[in-house]
Amino acid sequence: xxxxxxxxxxxxxxxxxxxxxxxxxxxxxxxxxxxxxxxxxxxxxxxxxxxxxxxxxxxxxxxxxxxxxxxxxxxxxxxxxxxxxxxxxxxxxxxxxxxxxxxxxxxxxxxxxxxxxxxxxxxxxxxxxxxxxxxxxxxxxxxxxxxxxxxxxxxxxxxxxxxxxxx
Length: 167
Hints:
By secondary structure, the protein is mainly α. It is built from 7 helices and 2 strands, in the order ββααααααα. It has helices at 41-65, 67-72, 77-93, 96-107, 114-130, 135-140, 158-162, and strands spanning 4-5, 8-9. A two-stranded antiparallel ribbon has the order 1-2.
């Protein structure tokens, strides 16, 4: 029943709260209900848990996102740079195909073509330096003039003619 004044019902802004618990209410409140004069402990604990979970999930996401770069770190520099660029493109554009392509590229060992070619080039350079210097003699001799006429085109049936067959 609402308290009555001389004029009738009391408006809600004029009512006062009492510290007493209603006799029909429970006398022992559960721990998760905040007291009227204190802080809500459960909300503070859940806020800390939420921030910690958010940091953990963010770290997990970034660690998973950098997986192709960590895999390609021990490969060649060019392959590592391509994988890193694909990872950045996937991060900023949200196109996951770039991340998958970077992961596949990081898993593949691209053969090293540069080292054997450098070795061949070094060997050819050594061979070229080891030959006697005939540059002055070669300049004195004039090269034979090339024939301005192209060689005649042989027919496709030359082999048949050589065996005695008819054309």
